[in-house]
Amino acid sequence: MKRNRLVTLYNMDATRTVLASLISILIGLAVGSVIVLIVGMSSSNLSAKSTWEGIRLVLFGILSTGRDAAGSLTFGFNPTSVGNMLFRATPLIMTGLSVAVAYKTGLFNIGAPGQYLIGTMASLMLALGIPTETVPAGIVWLIAFLGGMAAGAIWGAIPGLVKAYLNINEVLASIMTNWIAANLVTWAFDVSNFKNVVESTKSAYVYKTTFNGVETPKFGLDQLFPGSQVNGGIIIAIVIAILMYVIMTKTTLGYQLKACGSNRHAARYAGIKDKQSIVMSMAIAGALAGGGAALYYLSGNTEFYWSTYQSLPDTGFNGIPVALLAANNPIGVIFTGIFMSMLDIAGVQLTALTPFNEYITDVIIATIVYLSAFSLVIKMLLNGRKKHKAAKAAATEESGAETTSGEVAAEEAGKIPDEAPDGTDAQPAAEGKPPEDGAPEKGGEAK
């Protein structure tokens, strides 16, 4: 009975999805450890002890508490690292949701970096431009957050429009809007008064929002994780992820978006406005990416480098592996976003506590990010194994059925029917038995 329950649980699609993601994560961590091992063995500057410490930090860096008096690594609950992990996970959850929601509707939103930049520009300009002397800081924060989401929605709707009405691939359109956003944001801040001229060493950055008294409320998280950057943004991101799950699975809008993504022409035949659904999907994706930028920079403790025309934010691209690892499930994105952030913190610990430099950290994280795409391949292999088992079971059942049918047929063939189909006696007369009165003899006539 217990075995049957386990088999039933394994055969569920959600179970195989989670298994595929976990296997991808374990493979990524193993590859990262192997990279550290290879570098440690091939470098004369690194000892076996340093190599072993590097591997331990790759696997358990989030639990590192530094070194003791003897110089050995110590591990335990580190509230600062955990709080920073949650802080860095906030924008990753939002950009992961951006990619996941678009993918659920049949679209690949590679424009999250541009939407993230536009959301950054709108939220910072609103947060720094509205005087808190006349408008309460809490209202300014809300306006800036909603403004960042609205700006991201508008920027995301552009690829949606050209996809819906001009049938231009959304990937190409998103790539173009990414670089337009990078140059637009650079120009907008270059001619603005938001560049930090108070701190002479920070003139390449925009003011922190705390210069205007605007910052995301902590909701008591700073007490749980003292010394970290964590704030209420992680709670807001989790609530939005749950809300997106409800919208995509429990509402008419979510059904229409997914139906359009499955088959645009069939959805149109069913009465769904396919063009409107495509634009709506990309607008929602853009709003989520823009909201992620707003939550990150409205924290009040982060700085934005305004010259972005030569690069795009990694957070936008990292939303892709976050969504892939979660199989585009909004609830799963919460956990994969936190996991990706945990890797980032482990990299910081690796650089700070061992001779390994930041380039090794980047290679390890990039390898794990790359392997996250294999979660879909692993799921296909698991599905193939299930189909093979099902086919084998069906063949066995069919063979057993044929055997049973043959036995029944043989048994039926050995029986002599007692009555003909017309109701008369079907048993032949005994050999030599005379015919009844009134019945003609064989070859004779009736008397």
Question: What does this molecule look like?
Answer:
The chain is 67% helix and 2% strand. The protein is an all-alpha fold. The protein has a domain at 91-342: Orthogonal Bundle (ABC transporter involved in vitamin B12 uptake, BtuC), CATH 1.10.3470. Strand 1 and strand 2 form a beta hairpin. The longest helix is centred in the last third of the chain and has 39 residues, at 375-413. It is globular, with a radius of gyration of 34 Å. Mean pLDDT is 83; it is low at 426-447.
Offer a concise description of the structure.
With 447 residues, the protein is an all-alpha fold.
State the low-pLDDT regions, or none. 426-447
Distance between the termini: 76 Å
CATH architecture of the domain at 91-342: Orthogonal Bundle
How much helicity do the residues have? 55-70%
- Helices and strands, in order, run as HHHEEHHHHEHHHHHEHHHH
Q: Given this structure, which CATH class of the domain at 91-342 is correct?
A: Mainly Alpha
Which structural class is indicated by helix and strand composition?
A: mainly alpha
Q: What is the molecular shape? A: globular
On the 0 to 100 scale, the average pLDDT is 83
